[in-house]
Amino acid sequence: MAEGILSPINRNNKFYSEEDFQYECSLLEEFIEEDLNQVIVVYEVDRTKTNVHSTYKESKQNIRYKTPKELPCMYEIKDSETKSYDGQSNNAVYSISGNLQAFIPTFMFEKYDCNIRRGDYIGVQIDTNRMAYFVVTNDDKVNYSNSHHIGSYKTAWRVIECAPVVESEFNGR
Question: pTM for this one?
Fold first, then answer.
């Protein structure tokens, strides 16, 4: 086959087709949007308006964000952890939220005009008065594992991994 030419996926046509895949995606979409009702708020870094270091591709000052967007998904916040400022004596102990994992079908990114990348921030409404914030540590853009496929047909979702942040790093403003 010539390089750069895309072809249809024919390996499973006897048992599974594009129509089957689209049907299962529509069931997943209905479950997430109408039944599950979990939403994250995505704060995408505006990489065109933010001054980024040419070598290290990072910026800690004057980070500009696009307008926050709500994105329906399935998410899980892991158990909190107890940490210490001094690893030697375990004095000055503090507690921090566990990591966040968000399971997002790939079609949701296009539907909600959203693109999560490493370094973006995510907010999760904890209760009526408080939101917890996380920074994206793995955007799962390059993942072809079987666990991300539906019917061994093609990739259907991404698993976004995030670490908790303190309010001094990011607070949604």
Answer: 0.78
